[in-house]
Specification:
CATH architecture of the largest domain: 3-Layer(aba) Sandwich
Number of helices: 9
Oligomer: single chain
CATH class of the largest domain: Alpha Beta
Order of helices and strands: HHEEEHEHEEEHEHEHEEHHE
CATH topology of the largest domain: D-Maltodextrin-Binding Protein, domain 2
Largest sheet: 8 strands, mixed
Strand content: 15-25%
Helix content: 25-40%
Structural class: alpha/beta
Number of domains: 2
Distance between the termini: 24 Å
Number of strands: 12
Length: 301
């Protein structure tokens, strides 16, 4: 194993080579994808402090090749979940916890990064399944696991319910009753979960998670389900609604890669554990002023 000085020298040399290969000019970001990934551009490095490399060795060449078949790390970014990512107010570029993690992974692999934005988690899942991106960030779910390799979770967020202010529904246990229509974001983690768990209420699917409350209002449904932070933000712009206390599920957000990338799975898992252990994830949550999410516990697996 290289010592720290030699590793730093090699990283600097690799970075210089990347600059020479790709040029010094940085193109603009692509717009969010409404279907499969494609056509996005390279993104400039973020102004974030790299995490310590002390707990995870340099990536073997086999891992780099497995994760970057296109010669760069193509990272799917879900702009439909404000806890994971959003758009910079000044530039419109993707920003957020998942963006920081993607950049840090690319730095450790010594490769260029391509951020591929999507407006819904379900579309990120489709891109991973199609092998059109190399990594993505979305919630662990058994159905998604058919085509996806997950690391352990890096953050945990809450799924909550919203109802009209005058609704007779007072707590989460009263939602699953005949006659109640529950609006969810198509293909979201809570869509998959509630599809399995609700036995009596009817599920109504909005095209994306950010559209859930608008569909809830337009169709005069009884309940809206979603990420608590998103619902809280919607409650500030729409009168006559309230959130039920507590949460109906914990959503465990993880780093995902196509199942065909099995040789890189152990490295990605170690990377996420180091990001939690080093404080990188906690610092990213604080830097982006994210509330309603906590750093997941370290994995024992």
């Amino acid at each position: 194993m290289f010592d720290l000085d030699r590793r730093s020298f090699l990283r600097a040399a690799a970075t210089a080579a990347s600059i020479a290969a790709f040029g010094s000019s940085m193109p603009l970001f692509a717009t969010p994808q409404t279907g499969n990934a494609g056509g996005s551009t390279q993104s400039p490095p973020a102004n974030i402090s790299p995490a310590s490399d002390s707990e995870i060795p340099p990536a073997p060449e086999s891992v780099v090749k497995t994760l970057t078949p296109a010669g760069k790390l193509r990272a799917a970014i879900n702009l439909g979940n404000p806890i994971l990512a959003g758009k910079d107010a000044a530039t419109g570029a993707p920003t957020g916890v998942s963006v920081d993690l993607a950049r840090e992974l690319a730095r450790r692999l010594n490769v260029a990064i391509e951020l591929v934005p999507f407006d819904a988690a379900g579309k990120v899942v489709e891109a991973i399944s199609a092998n059109s991106v190399d990594i993505g960030f979305y919630a662990i779910d058994p159905k998604r696991g058919l085509d996806t390799l997950f690391t352990a979770a890096y953050i945990v967020i809450e799924g909550a319910y919203m109802v009209p202010s005058k609704s007779p529904i007072r707590n989460n246990s009263e939602v699953d009753r005949a006659g109640n229509r529950v609006v969810v974001g198509l293909g979201s983690a809570y869509d998959l979960y509630l599809t399995r768990e609700l036995k009596h209420a009817e599920i109504v699917r909005a095209p994306t998670s950010p559209a859930v409350v608008d569909v809830f209002i337009q169709q005069k449904c009884e309940v809206a389900a979603g990420v608590k932070q998103q619902l809280e933000a919607d409650a500030k712009r729409i009168s006559g609604v309230r959130l039920l206390d507590g949460h109906f599920m914990e959503i465990r957000q993880a780093l995902a890669t196509p199942k065909s990338r099995e040789p890189a799975h152990a490295y990605l898992s170690a990377f996420i554990e180091e990001m939690k252990r080093s404080g990188f994830v906690a610092e990213a949550l604080a830097r982006h002023r994210i509330q309603g999410a906590v750093v997941a516990a370290l994995s024992n697996r």
